[in-house]
Description:
The complex is a heterotrimer.
Chain A: H1 2-19, H2 29-40, H3 42-71, H4 88-91, H5 93-117, E1 122-125, E2 128-131, H6 133-140, H7 144-171, H8 180-207
Helix pairs in contact in A: 1-3, 1-7, 1-8, 5-6, 5-7, 7-8
Chain B: E1 3-9, E2 18-24, H1 33-46, E3 69-70, E4 73-74, E5 95-99, E6 108-110, E7 113-114, H2 117-124, H3 146-156, H4 163-167, H5 174-186, H6 194-207, H7 218-222, H8 230-245
Parallel strand pairs in B: 1-5
Antiparallel strand pairs in B: 1-2, 3-4, 3-5, 6-7
Helix pairs in contact in B: 2-6, 3-5, 5-6, 5-8, 6-8
Chain C: H1 15-22, H2 28-31, E1 35-39, H3 43-55, E2 58-63, E3 80-81, H4 93-103, H5 110-130, E4 155-156, H6 162-179, E5 183-187, E6 189-197, E7 200-208, E8 214-218, E9 221-224, H7 245-252, E10 257-258, E11 263-269, E12 292-296, H8 299-307, E13 320-321, H9 323-327, H10 337-352, E14 361-364, H11 366-372, H12 374-392, E15 401-410, E16 413-414, E17 427-429, H13 447-467, H14 480-499, E18 503-504, H15 505-520, H16 526-546, E19 547-548, H17 558-582, H18 606-609, E20 611-616, E21 625-630
Parallel strand pairs in C: 1-2, 1-9, 2-5, 9-17, 18-19
Antiparallel strand pairs in C: 3-4, 6-7, 7-8, 10-16, 10-20, 11-15, 12-13, 12-14, 14-15, 20-21
Helix pairs in contact in C: 3-6, 3-13, 4-5, 5-13, 11-12, 15-16, 15-17, 16-17
Amino acid sequence: MALTGLFLITFLIVHLSGNLQLLADDGGKSFNIYAKFMTTNPFIKTTSYLLYTTFIVHIIWAIMLSVKNRSSRPVGYAVNPGNVSSSWSSRNMGILGTVILIFLVIHMKNFWYEMHWGGIPTATYEGEVYNDLYSVVDFAFGNILYVLLYTVSMLALMFHLYHGFKSAFQTLGLNHPKYTPMIKTVGYAIAIIIPALFACIPIIMYLK
Amino acid sequence: MKIKLKVWRQKNAQDKGGFKTYDLDDVSEDMSFLEMFDVLNEDLVKKNEDPVHFDHDCREGICGMCSLYINGRPHGPKQTTTCQLHMRSFKDGDTITVEPWRAKAFPVVKDLVVNRTSFDKIIQSGGYVSVNTGGVPDANEIPIPKKIADEAFDSATCIGCGACVAACKNASAMLFVSAKVSQLAMLPQGQVERKTRAENMVATMDEEGFGACTNTGACSAECPKGISLENIARLNREFLSAKASSDNV
Amino acid sequence: MKLDSKIPEGPLAEKWSKHKFNVKLVNPANKRKYDIIVVGTGLAGASAAASFGELGYNVKAFCFQDSPRRAHSIAAQGGINAAKNYQNDGDSVFRLFYDTVKGGDYRSREGNVHRLAEVSVNIIDQCVAQGVPFAREYGGLLANRSFGGAQVSRTFYARGQTGQQLLLGAYSALSRQVANGKVKLHAREEMLDLVMVDGNARGIVTRNLITGKIESHSAHAVVLATGGYGNVFYLSTNAMGSNVTAAWRAHKKGAFMANPCFTQIHPTCIPVSGDHQSKLTLMSESLRNDGRVWVPKTKEDAEKIRKGQLKPTDLSEDQRDYYLERKYPSFGNLVPRDVASRNAKEACDDGRGVNSTGLAVYLDFADAIKRDGEDLISAKYGNLFDMYQQITGENPYKTPMKIYPAVHYTMGGLWVDYNLMTTIPGCYAIGEANFSDHGANRLGASALMQGLADGYFVLPYTIGNYLASVPYDKIPTDHEAFKKAEADVKERIDKLLSINGSKTVDEFHKDLGHIMWEYCGMSRNEAGLKKAKAEIKKLKEDYWSNVKVIGSNEELNMSLEKANRVADFIELGELMIDDALNRSESCGGHFREESQTEEGEAKRKDDEFSYVAAWEYNGEGKEETLNKEDLVFENVKLTQRSYK
């Protein structure tokens, strides 16, 4: 979980930096150029297969872990402690992950599938034809329900990362009195900044 | 003070069990939690009822035999053992729910008594240094930096009560295993068997049906001896490096 | 019967090496043909079982707890003595030997104690090799402290949890043998009888505490490592489960009980808070290094304090009686355990005790805090202060601690010879269960030493001497001797379950405890002991006609377990009284009011009582026979203690 999780975080960062171009005030030009680059560049294409695999491993591993852990306590407690001894997010990684997975499916259907196989409008910049993914996104973000879904999912991602980042280091055995506090701080920063930036894109676009 | 006790009663391992409520009218706040149960049990015996069975022995917080999941927390609201928990930690009129440790690896024997033999099995699979009696070097032959010795001691203070398993939502025994692995991994005496120890103890932990660690940290937060999460990180490190380099396929 | 202690001839320092050479050996290939039963898995039992397994014997280890690691050795705080002389302060094997014999008030065997001092050094090596994290200096070498008034620093320690660390070391060695298949572990199984065949110990009968099943186990030798019997006083620092049953059943089968009245009462325990009290908690006696013991000078002030009308801090210096400093100007608050305990009792008997019960004295740190500052005191005793506050709810930095003596250790136990064999051939007793090397009083940090010495370094040698002459044949558990013992055990259980009287086992136990504490506690006299004897007789009759035990045998049954144990405690109590009556001298932990100096201090009578009193069971309801093993002192000079 730790290795795949950390890899997925790097993906999030790359993905976010791309998405932020949606906010560039150029009618989607830079975003569409970026989108084309991401779908055609051979290096990116290879990496994307690694990414798909990582997602699948992360998910399958999580399911296996949940099944094992559920079976480790066949009879539960009548009283549960709440947040006294552990954080809410750490106890609900499975649920948070599931929310993110559902979002992912819808998200992939809306954009990734459209980009690859859908009937997508085109735009031409400097004589070259681009898929106009921007307009697809712009259309989707015009739908308040979708914006809400997106925002809620980012909230789930926030909690997921809040525990996931530092937890990954613990699983890998990287715990040190000097560095662990730093890792935690970085983790909290990542957990807040990445989903927040992701979420502000649809919100801003919806309001525009 | 008055206390309402909601206690898990279960005749034996096969019985389904359920909660039973008892009202105690005259509880002194100086009583330990277990002494309150003593008083209840004397009363039950007088009424020809089976006393509530629970594990306990030293009653000074070191043998690790007492358990009890009190109001949703192993060993109750204080970070100590149940035998060292006193009734002044509760308020007059409180309802207290008492359950046994719950884990597949800790089956209920009767009432609040559970079987923790799987902890012994884990230690048997590697929680030792293989030296026979006699024929060992002088105790001062190998100097050990004070810091290392102190850290090893901190890990070694685990009392094997199982609160970590009880607290963990996954019923994982990682804190217990990591405390022993850490102690011996830090000391020079433990180096020879360092890799096999980590591998074997983790394997036994899995076989015994404990869950996997998801780093919630509840174990350490509830540990009456304050065994730290650094031990778990160290176990992960030990295990990964052992797996990466061992001959076992 | 003539007791033969089998102490080897020759100079003191050579006895053990000579003996080791002279004992018969069992061929390595033949060791696997012998089975040994070890009852109890504390320091002595676990270390012995592990060592036997390593040697190649087949071992069955029994404990009543759910795991060997729970044994009460785990609660020892202070440390373990060893004559390593790492501190270059003049310690030696002979000095440790001398201190131990003197500390025991000259009621132990020279030969045994010297051996103990000799092997003490090996124990530390062994434990370090097992990974026991002893305290260390910055240079990486082992740290030592001076403990219990010793003149040298010979105590090794692991913070305040030395017993825990040593036990976990022995438990790990035991676990290794379990994994190797040489030791078979029987947890939650309690020994209820010793089985004899042709006059030799050949097995035990146990009760499985979960299922109630009565089982027989056959072996070539039986080792009892079942600890002390302090719980005869109901309240003690022992664990709740600590009991005398195994030793007592062996006694009834012919093992003599030696010096049963020798009990150690520890002065710094947390006082009783009420009738619900189930056990007493010890605090390290190191507290007396900085704390000052006092009670109010007048009964009136004490009375007001008990009623809560006055606070201890309200009393001025001249309203307080620092009685230890007053009576023992040179030792002051650091007088030995028995003296400190007795004086606390005297103060309370005088009506000047504090706490609502009137059974406590103050241990005051105000001066130490003023002198050294709260930080330093907290660094030294922080964990003890926290423990005190947790249990009592009072803050010892602000108000003086309250302490009272409590039963802590029993020096008496099954009589054993130099080979640690009881008077039953093939039955051994080790650790606190035997009458041991501590004489009439045990020095601090010596219990752990003795337990591990017996288990690691003495019995593994001496048991071979016996086994070498025992035929290999195993006795099947359907042998009539086993069947008879099983039937006896079942009959007794049935009896207990059938009485269905009106008084609970705990009530009887408390009554017994009151009698023992009152008349056979810190100070004893003839009239009181005789009275106690009559009361215990009555209690015993009442017990067997009026005890209430709930449930059946075929289940986990706490009340039945206790009933079995308390029945034996009552009988033991009677014998302790006999022993205390017989020994009309004061020595060590045994203070007979008839035998004191003009200043009111303990007075030994070496001409009359320089012997081990070994009691022989003669059957139900009969007086036991006293057998004497004379103690010969060739290497130490007998002196009276003085702390003035």
